[in-house]
Each structure stands twice: as structure tokens, then as C-alpha cells.
Design goal:
By secondary structure, the protein is α+β, with helices and mostly antiparallel strands. The chain is built from three helices and seven strands. Strands 4-3-2-1-7-6-5 form a seven-stranded antiparallel β-sheet, sandwiched between helices. A hairpin with a 2-residue loop joins strand 3 and strand 4.
Amino acid sequence: MTAFVHKTLVVQLRSEGTGRCPVLAHLTYDDADPFAVTAVFCHDGRVLACWRLDREMLGEGLARPVGIGDVRLRPIETGAWHELRMEFLGDFRPDGGRHHAVVFAWAPAVAAFLRETHRVVPPGRERVPVDALLAEILAAG
């Protein structure tokens, strides 16, 4: 039986010229894909972006800066307020630049979500059915 963890958060999307605006972030964890968290960002009923994040990296980003590729995470503290800053680099634009988004989430809410995922699959106990996957790939070839 597959177990899921889902949490919806209101996060802040930083946009050029307008500062931060609230959007919804739907975080989902599925034990069938135990290393990943899916984050879907929505506003006014529209999906703005969908990212698959490494669960361990998400947890590390709450404590220290992580990521050197398309996803970069780091904690931000402003007095008693603790946030997780998530920076996403997307597809290339026609002008040669890249789509870029910065999202701020309340760090205690992200930590609570991760604790729920750890109850489903504790860190270090993740398993992927490699034999079944290889058999499926070889059967298709």
C-alpha cells in the first residue's frame, strides 16, 4: 500500500518590481518515490510551476545553504521569523537568460511536513524496486 503526505502552504513569490506576493505551494511525498518531494506552486487556480525536490536536500536547506544547480535552498532568519529561501532556475528564454523564481516558505511548516514524511519512510530506509524497474526496461527493449 502506498502512503502519501500532503501539505498546502501559503508561500511568498518574489517578483521583480512588486516585491513578494502570496501563492500556494502544494508539497507531496509518495513513498513509491521515497527520495523526492513534489512542489506545485499555484495562483488563482493556475499552476505556475512544478518541481521535484530531493527530500534530503530540502531538509538540509532548513539548516544551511545547499544546491549548486537549478535549485538552491538556504535558511533566512529575521528576528523570530525563520524562512526557507528557495531559488529555482528554469528554462532558457529567447534572450539567452533563464527563467528565475525565488520563493520564501515558513521554515517551521516545511520542517513539520518533512517530519511527517520521515514517519512514513525514515531517512536511510528509502528503497527503490531496482530489480522490477530493470526487468521492465529489459522487457520493453
